[in-house]
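--- STAGE predict ---
source: upstream dedup step, 1 unique chain passed
mode: sequence only
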Amino acid sequence: MSSSVKTSKFRSFVQSVKDFDIAKLFSPAPAPQIPRTVYVNRPLPDSYYVHRRGGQRKVHKDHRYSSNQVVTSKYTILTFLPRNLLEQFRRIANIFFAFICILQFFPRFSTISPGLVILPLIIVLLVTAVKDGYEDVKRHQSDRKVNHTKVLVLEGEGYTNENGMRSKSKTFTRGIKIPYRKKKSLHKDSSDSSTLKPPRDDDLVDVETPKPHWRSTAWEDVRVGDFVKIRADEPFPGDIIICTTSDPEDVCFVETKNLDGETNLKSRKSVGSLGHLSSAEACAKHAFRIDADRPETNMYRLNAKITALNEKGEDEGKAEPIDLNTVLLRGTVLRNTDWVIGIVLFTGGDTKIVLNSGGTPSKRSKLERQMNPMVFINLALLAGVGVLTSVASSTLERRYVKQDGPWVYGEGPPDDNPSFNGFTTFFNALITFQNVVPISLYISIEFVRLCQAAFIYFDSEMYYEPADQAALSRSWNLGDDLGQIKFMVSDKTGTLTQNSMIFRKCSIGGKIYDGDAEEAENETQLRERPADAPDRASAAIGEGYDIPLAMLPSGKAESSNTPPVNPNVHHFHDTQLFEDIERSATGESSAHARALNAFMTTLALCHTAIAGVSEEDGSITYKAQSPDESALVQAAADSGFIFLGKEKDVLRLKTPFLEGDTVEEYELLHVLDFTSARKRMSVIVRRVDSEDSKRVFLLCKGADSVIIERLKNGQNEFTKTTEEHLEYFASSGLRTLCLAYKVIPEDEYEEWARRYHDATIAMDDREEMIEKVSDEMERGFRLLGATAIEDKLQDGVPEAIADIKRAGIKVWVATGDKLETAISIGYSTNLIAPDSNLIVVRGGKFGQEHSAYDQMVKAVEQFFPDQGILDLEEVHPPELHTSEKPPASPRPGVRRVATGLSEILDEDNGKKSGGFVLVIDGVALSHSFEEAFSKQLLLQIGLRCEAVICCRVSPLQKAQLVHMIKDNLKVLTLAIGDGANDVSMIQAADIGVGISGEEGLQAVNSSDYAIAQFKFIKRLLLVHGHWTYARNANMIGNFFYKNLVIVAVLFWFQIYCAWSTTYVVDYTYLLFWNVFWSLAPVIAIGIFDRNVDDDVLMSIPELYRYGREGTHFGLIMFSWYMLDAIFQGALVFFVITFSYSLTTSRADGYGIAMYEYSATMVLATVMIVNLFNGLNTAAWTWWVFFAVSFGIVLVWAFTAIYSTIRPGWFVTSSYGNYHLLFRSVDFWFGLLLTIPLALLPRYLYHSVRFIFYPNDFDILRWIKKNEPNKDFAHDPALGGKLKARHDGTQGQEEEGGDDDRRSFTSSLHPPRRSFQSSRPNLREDWRSGSRTDMSTGRTEFNRGFNFSAEEGGIAIRRTQTNLSERYLQRLGGQKGGTNHPYMSSAPALPKVGDSRRHSLSITASTMLKSLRRPKEDEQQQQ
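--- STAGE serialize ---
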């Protein structure tokens, strides 16, 4: 028992060491967050103070708020040195070398001057410290720029602010200023701008007067409770309650892209009772009390209320609610509004943007993590050598050196202890052989990675000219991970698509309007267009509750105030729709006419868009919170229902049913905002100046899943028709919404409005109360129709995904779109092949009927019965034994489910050759993450599918998905997205890639790499990822090798010096070993090496598997380099030693000195190391020639000059070598003999492998050398065959030959034999893709998806999985192979004993045949 307790304590200690965070030593813990009551222009209550002796008092710490100073820097002048050193000494190599340097300060262990010994370590620490310091100075500059930004704060008589604030941090000592570059202010002075409600105190800015006025104040000095005035284009210094604005409606517009990544302007309104505070004088005359909940990270929740106070401090009037619509958050910018006056509620660390700005996670590359075992191996080797030398030295001293021996010169005193001498020899050995741990490796890697990041930035193939943006490496220490990615998790909207919303179709009253032909000619759809059923709309629209129409007596009158068309936006045109509206406007009263008016009126009014008039042509432009909302309003305007804007709370609408300049006006009563939980938004309006002025309407738009369940009874037929239309739209890859309305009786509305107001001012559970009251009103809808908006694909997305899948990378997509839309995008992006089998999981909580877990179990039993998934213990609930099968869920009853495809049941489902694709919705995903066993089952199914599509997912679920893959499989995962909702996913992945799109730059700012278009991810991975990984792996191996060679020479000499750790060479040569003699070639490998050209890598994505499988780097490669180093060290030492030991090499007959013949060893070793590094370089350029020659030329020049230095200048052990060495035959003989012999094994290995066992890179380099202009992508023997195999277009005859079997065996999928005679007709072939909805058990087939009409005309690629091949083989009576551990779409593993295991095996015969073909053609032409 005691041993287990000790083990537990030890594990706790180890875990505490791992979790130790240096930042906690230098950063104070944040104060606890509590609710607050802020007094504006009133003294604080006596209970807020702590009274002290002498009548002094101080605000209690619970009522002191965070200062508005924000500090993101890491260091101060006082903490820089200790904190930076602690961070640097987390590297074991730095600790080791510091220990070695300390040892040499003791005379017993000193070799040369301790200052000279510590110099390399100081240089490494200094360079890193300078880099860290430079980065932190930039952070200090940024902090100073932000904290010293000016804002207008109220000052003067009659105004006080006694709210307590915490003290500011002093990041630099007083008097030291960090300069920063001031930018010219973007805003215009208020006096120069024309406003609808101009302030009366513009002249009272920064003036010396006792009257209330505005004073320019630094942000860091802004206090809670201050009145502030923000002018146009200025950012907000804190979270501010809006009092009044320059707009007569007290509305302002803000840009929130720094907060949520969205570039669309958001509207905010003032608190109703504060609208009169439009001047400094008015603000100073009033007092308020603000009751607010504690600061929290939730960006979409803020509960507070404000109450006016009289002169006695008593409440005056009723409390007004404060929510996010009346608050301006820090990080946002004021736009399209001249000025805003507000009250500061939260400052500094209490603001939402600061609370949500978690530190960027610390990421280390896989290559760096793999280096640690190698460093430890070298340390263990060093320790072993130290033990060997200490034991041997002590033993020899005991045996041969007797105490008091008069014949021994310099015999030690009687107390000399051989055992203690052996102990000290151990530390001497650590000093002598310290180069086995390369101290310069880390700094060399950092320099190389910096250059590699520059290559990415300057790559013209990844430069996006329309946005003037190049690819950017923000974390350049992760470049080699780009070449080892196994999973990619991608966002859809804005990442795969353009986030450019275009209104394409709509369904009104049961009739579809497709848009004119030119608008939809490039669409793709999965099903036929359903029939119209406008007659079903009568009951839905109703006779007595319709939105009234203003009919024209005859003809459609021309309107003189109709604004011109905006040429800068897309316009929706549908001749049939315009004709129907024209007939309705001419007096044809029908249910469909009422449906048209109701639909378009709802489309034009149910939104929060802003209507702006262009000064150039007078056209109207709509700015909305999302691009699809502006597209909806624009589509209504294109149909004649023009939203003209809002005046206070009145919405103005021009319709084709009104004569002349008549405009309909609606009073806006309430806006029930859209949220991800509600999935709908509603507006409550009342007609103004008409016979319907007492009638209240609720207009709603939202997801079909929430609208349909809230419909009034009696609309079943119409609802069914609209659902069919919705599925038709979704199958075309369009985003859909439903529109509905409701007429509210006046008395019902008045009673509901009172309850809604009470809910808005509640301090506890405000959101729940508002949602409950809103849900009560949003019932009993009458359905109007549906809309369909296209989110167009980005250029090159289908090709990029197809090639990424060819590279063996698993692609999972996480999107917030509905299931049918996600599936359609999957087809159009090549993520889903036309003959794929879709497994759809839509379910509920575990334990309930049709739970997600039960559906996944059924999927395993139906499609993966022989995979052994259900034999795994971790996929079963804890109460079930492994051998027991989970209880089968009852067969679902008959219920209406919109499946989207025609129901064709077939027993062959799951036997299609295109593999499986899992589609799971957000509800099922959420329940799958709740239980560990359900998560494991989901992971096991996903691994056996070619792709996984997750729809209706939240940002948190995206991050959970990444963690599930990364943490369970221990594989490198890449996440790519473009919006603020992708930040958590990007930060959770090993590599995060941000796309600068329409949703702002927050994803880019949180990413490791930034690109402008998704298509560039292909080159980033296949070219730069491959090159970086191969270069760094080769460089690190050669780095360890070059250091061990010289250590081996020193070690072999210990045999001849009684293991005394004596240096065989002049220490100066060792001192410069890692700086001058051997550094340049390995740096050249890391920067300039190229095992194959970029066009080949782009044409043959299958080459990426070398990095994905980690073949370039590992302990095996490391061991071969170590063996090379030991062999070469032994060869150099013994050959040169024996050659010099036979007879003297001097002409005068004197014996040679040790440093004379060891200089030959140094020269030979330097030349061998540099040439060996060059031998391991695939691409020889002039830079490589220079790098290989640099160390050789330098060591020869140094030897010639260093040996001429006379003792009169300073004493050297090599003086005179220039006279002795260069005239010695043994010197030249040693060089000429050792250099070829040392390089011979590696040269023979390269030669034999290239001639008899060439790998892919050898073959492709040879072909590229002989045919520089060869088209690898389409060559029938190279990329063309690979692509054909992947696409499934290769004929049977082409696969049957012997050459074909030799050419493609390991990296491609097995041949399909009889199933591959030709490309099948997808409408007739039995292998067309199917879809099984596990929640209903229905199986449906993909019929009629027209890929020829796809954007760009890209033919869909198909991806054949090993799983599908094994299934086909079972059908043919063949046995399947071994499961791949990670990738079902990955290449089949080679058989044991296959000597070409790491090759595509494009054999020499294929290469020669490819080279022979041009010559044969020439002979035929002759």
